[in-house]
Amino acid sequence: MLEPMFISNSTDIQFFYLINVNMQNPIFDFIMPLMSEIGYFIFWVVISIIIFIFGGERERNASLVCITALIGGFFITDFLKLVVAVPRPYEVLEGVRVLVSINGYSWPSGHSVASFIALTVYGLTIIRKKSVFIYFFIFVVIIMFSRVYNGVHYPSDVISGALIGIFIALVFLRYENDIIKLKNKLMNK
Fold this sequence. Notes:
Elements: H1 10-22, H2 26-37, H3 41-54, H4 57-84, H5 89-92, H6 110-125, H7 130-149, H8 155-174, H9 176-186
Helix pairs in contact: 2-7, 3-4, 4-6, 4-8, 4-9, 6-7, 6-8, 7-8
């Protein structure tokens, strides 16, 4: 394990406290831990499996690309966390409100990576209505916000996690035809 390559800057810490401490209220204290529970890789894999089972050919192909990207994203995220080794906010800052239990390193946010992989893959392949995409985007942003509100990530963790998730999704979408060909070969189509 390497020493942390960077520590969040003062603006990042100020925004962290703004969200984690200054925005506290009973409604968020109830909702945000729930949002954190549903935003991780396994949630999006389950959603993708449901889409694969009940969708048409286009939806099955998109869900297969999404699952593949999520698996890749999981390993990339864990690798980055081990290499960069940024401690979680509650480990180094005072007065942090921690609403969910978690261990491991802070950067990047795996929830943001996974959520933006799903948003990007489905947004570019099967979501046709702008309103559906907007609702999906808002849902994903709430998941990101919940990670900071719950005291387990800095704002920079979730923003960079979103960018990493978008990048991973675009890379896997670039190889969409190869993934589909492999699926068809394995299913003898």
